[in-house]
Amino acid sequence: MTFKLPALPYEYVALEPYIDSETMHLHHDKHHKTYVTKLNAALAKHPDLASKSLHDLLTHIDDLPESLQTPIRNNAGGHANHSFFWRILTENAPLMPTGELLEKIEARFGTFKDFQAEFNNAALGVFGSGWAWLVVDHDGELQIMTTPNQDSPIMSGNRPLIGLDVWEHAYYLKYQNNRIDYIENFWKIINWPLVAELI
Fold this sequence. Notes:
Layout lengths: L20 H24 L9 H6 L6 H22 L11 H11 L2 H13 L5 E7 L5 E7 L10 E7 L6 H4 L3 H8 L5 H7 L1
Antiparallel strand pairs: 1-2, 1-3
Helix pairs in contact: 1-3, 4-5
Enzyme class: oxidoreductase
Family: Belongs to the iron/manganese superoxide dismutase family.
GO molecular function, one term: superoxide dismutase activity
């Protein structure tokens, strides 16, 4: 299998003013593409793994040859995380979820604002590069978690519902060191109807 860079599901300018088109070009066309290129290069040396999906590679990473585990963690993780990230963003987004998803969030976190505050704190607390996530855990419960670098929540058996890239390349052109502004604007572009389908 040769992995491919997915097209964005919207125009590069679609998420402005919250994410600018220059950042989207850099993030998608350069950073994400590099993960795909390096992933394919790593797998080219292991034709026995050609039929494996991203999910298979990441959920069974400990079964891979030791020399391949770090390239897969970094590049399959980067490809999976970014492919997911683009999907859950949208223009003209509703400001909050509704229905079953909102009920589950309120049952777990108290109020939607409480959930946002906890998620914001998690995203702010990522030291260096990484991600903040809302996931469904092994017990079917909603949890907020973070992962370093390009580690994916599926590596630990969790199912992502939303994920926020807090690597500097995701926001620095527009927000410089103001990660909190980037995080707060993330809430304005989440595709909540799609997220609800992931429950």
